[in-house]
Each structure stands twice: as structure tokens, then as C-alpha cells.
Design a protein that fits this description.
This protein is α/β, with parallel strands linked by helices. It has two domains: 156 residues, Vaccinia Virus protein VP39 (Rossmann fold); 82 residues, no CATH class. It has an eight-stranded mixed beta sheet, sandwiched between helices. Strand 2, helix 3 and strand 3 form a beta-alpha-beta unit. Helix 1 packs across helix 2 and helix 6 packs across helix 7. GO terms for molecular function: methyltransferase activity. Keywords: Methyltransferase, Transferase. This is Class I SAM-dependent methyltransferase. It comes from Microbispora oryzae.
Length: 268
Amino acid sequence: MTRGTTGHNRLRRSDRWIATVYGPLLRSAALPAGGPPPLVVDLGYGASHVTTHELFTRLRRVCRTVEVAGVEIDPARVAAAKPYEREGLSFARGGFELPVARPPLLVRAFNVLRQYGEDEAWEHWATLRARIAPDGVVVEGTCSEVGHRAVWAALGAEGPRTITFAARFTGFERPSSLAERLPKTLIHRNVPGEPVHAFLADWDRAWATCAPLAGFGARQRWIAAAGLLARDWPVTTAPPTGGPARWRLGELTLPWPAVAPRGTAHGG
């Protein structure tokens, strides 16, 4: 069981990204009419139902038939959330086995793997990937207490696809400040010789190079640094996950192989 700390809008950044990037997937799964609606699982939602309800509300804006199920291992937390159920929104007790009626199209799992070791985290990734729909996705990550800094990975049935860094422009000193929010599969890999360490070091240098733009605001500095970084790293530059439209929101996405750990079965 996790500590369960949560709060309003803590996961707004990841919700916004999910709705934009995977809204088309949810809508396509809603057709043809008469079939089961697309199912999303919010795994380990914590002591309050609030972030699950926010996810449901935000996804309903992009797919009016989506169903969201909040899953928690603590029966007291599930009981506390039950009064907030409504059509399309439910809560159930469970864990990585995902106790839902059919394979979900999307699983959001935030701040649930911090207590595990790196190898255990890889195992739980594999467990979740095996339980999603064939074209489904797992979005797993961590964020700060108020959600101003977050990092998440998107995984398909085949394995990790992308990693996204997101921050409030006033919520960090330099981009490497986001290192403390790396997924458990990477957080101990932020050492010399590992790709994620080299990436964060280069991002800090790009951020420093773009310091003169700070007078126009941190947003313009972030956009410029992202463009500079994209010269040497495969930063996603095209919609829906990349380019100035996403950078201006304080996001930056890379393909997972760019930062995958070296010298293991999971990396290069």
C-alpha cells in the first residue's frame, strides 16, 4: 500500500497529455456503436478519489463513452470512494492484476512504483503490459506532491515507447531537477555512463545557453532549449507529443530507447 497522498490537480499535467495523445485511441475504440465502451484504469489512486474523478472528467471531454475504474489495494480507501461512483466511474479493490471485467485500453499508474526496486518495477511493468488490450497503453510515472514536476513513461504491449518530462515553469531550477521524478526503472541510472544522465546534462547545458531568453519568460526559454536539445537528441518535434505546441506547456518527450539503461536486458 502506498502513502496515498494526493490532491486536486496533482495529475493535471499527465491527464492533459493523455487526453491529447490518446484521445483518438479512446474515440476509435468507442466504435462501432453497440460495442463495449473504452475502459481506463487508474491504478493506485491513493487516499482520495479526487484524481480518478478528474481523470474521468477530462477523458469524457474527448470521448463521451469512456469508462474509468479506480483500483486501490486498501479496502478502506475503496469504501471511501464508493459514494462517488456514477455512470462510467467505479472503484474496486485490487492491484497489478487489474480486477476489471475486460482488458483496459489505458492504465494510468502514478506514484505506485516508488517503493519497489528496479527489477521489481520492470516486473510490474511487464504484468501491466500483459493485462492491457492488444492496442492499449500504460502511462506510469511519478510527480511531486503538488504536481509541479513529473516524469512518465508510455508503454505498449511490446514494451516502453516514450518518456515525457513535464514541469511548471516556476517549479524547478534547472531541467535536471526533474531527475528525482524519473521512473523507478531509471532513477538509479542517473549516473555517468548512462544515457539518461547524459541527456539531463545536455538539457542543463541547453537551458544555460538559452538563459538570455529568460527575460521573455521561462516558457520561451524552455521552447528554445528544447529546440537546441533536439539537434543532438531525438526529442519528439511533431504533434501530438512534441513540437512547440507541447513545449510551451512545459513538456518534452523522447523515444524510450534514447534513455534506456545500458548493460541490462532492458536496455542497450
